[in-house]
């Protein structure tokens, strides 16, 4: 009885050889691949006979790549806001490990990273939309065999509070003048007390 099923691993050069196969028809399919690459789903039909006693089959593996989509919304209303920019880094809190910057999708307005290869990354906002504070959170991104066809993140930004104290306002100036007045009064009383002691 001939071979019904045979599973082999590729050698150091990426080859597998089945020697001395009996004449007949076989099917060949990849069942596992190395980390970071997509499995080749092709089912190859192999016919061994006097005309083709040797058969050479090539299996192609594409590197795992995924797009990343970032949706920017208002923290309070959850309404989409355009104008943000993001970047991918290899190491959290390390801006020198920069990988790539997002590009704006012309249809959706969302920020996109295209063809991000297998691995782990950190996502960080680098530019906030006008009128908003930048979100300082680092988002962990994993691209592997289990990743969805599209990896999506929703990032919230808070509007800039127009009522925050401003060091250039009249109110702040009043506080400053009041402080100077108190210091001057304290100095005057201290000098007067010193004269009485003499």
Write the layout of secondary structure elements.
Blueprint: E1 24-29, E2 43-48, E3 65-74, E4 85-89, E5 98-101, E6 103-104, E7 111-117, E8 119-127, E9 139-143, E10 151-157, H1 170-197
Parallel strand pairs: 3-10
Antiparallel strand pairs: 1-2, 3-7, 4-5, 4-8, 6-7, 8-9
Short description:
By secondary structure, this protein is of the alpha+beta class. The chain has one helix at 170-197, and strands spanning 24-29, 43-48, 65-74, 85-89, 98-101, 103-104, 111-117, 119-127, 139-143, 151-157.
3D architecture notes:
By secondary structure, this protein is of the alpha+beta class. It has two domains: 1-62, no CATH class; 65-157, Immunoglobulin-like (Sandwich). It contains one helix and ten strands, in the order E-E-E-E-E-E-E-E-E-E-H. Strand 4 (85-89) and strand 5 form a beta hairpin. The termini are far apart. Residues 164-170 have low confidence and may be disordered.
């Amino acid at each position: 009885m001939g071979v019904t099923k045979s599973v082999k691993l590729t050698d150091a050069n990426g080859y597998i050889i089945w020697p001395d196969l009996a004449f007949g028809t076989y099917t060949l399919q990849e069942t596992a691949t190395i980390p970071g690459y997509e499995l080749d789903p092709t089912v190859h039909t192999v016919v061994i006979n006097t005309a083709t006693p040797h058969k050479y089959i090539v299996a192609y593996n594409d590197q795992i790549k995924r797009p990343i989509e970032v949706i920017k919304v208002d923290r309070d209303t959850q309404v989409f806001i355009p104008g943000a920019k993001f970047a991918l880094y290899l190491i959290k809190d390390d801006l020198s490990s920069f990988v790539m910057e997002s590009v704006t999708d012309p249809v959706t307005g969302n920020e996109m990273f295209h063809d991000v290869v297998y691995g782990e990354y950190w996502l960080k906002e680098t530019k906030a939309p006008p009128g908003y504070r930048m979100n300082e959170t680092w988002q962990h991104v994993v691209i592997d065999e289990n990743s969805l066809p599209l990896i999506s993140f929703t990032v919230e930004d808070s509007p800039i509070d127009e009522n925050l104290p401003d060091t250039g306002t009249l109110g702040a100036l009043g506080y400053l003048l009041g402080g100077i007045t108190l210091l001057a009064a304290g100095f005057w009383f201290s000098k007067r007390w010193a004269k009485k002691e003499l």
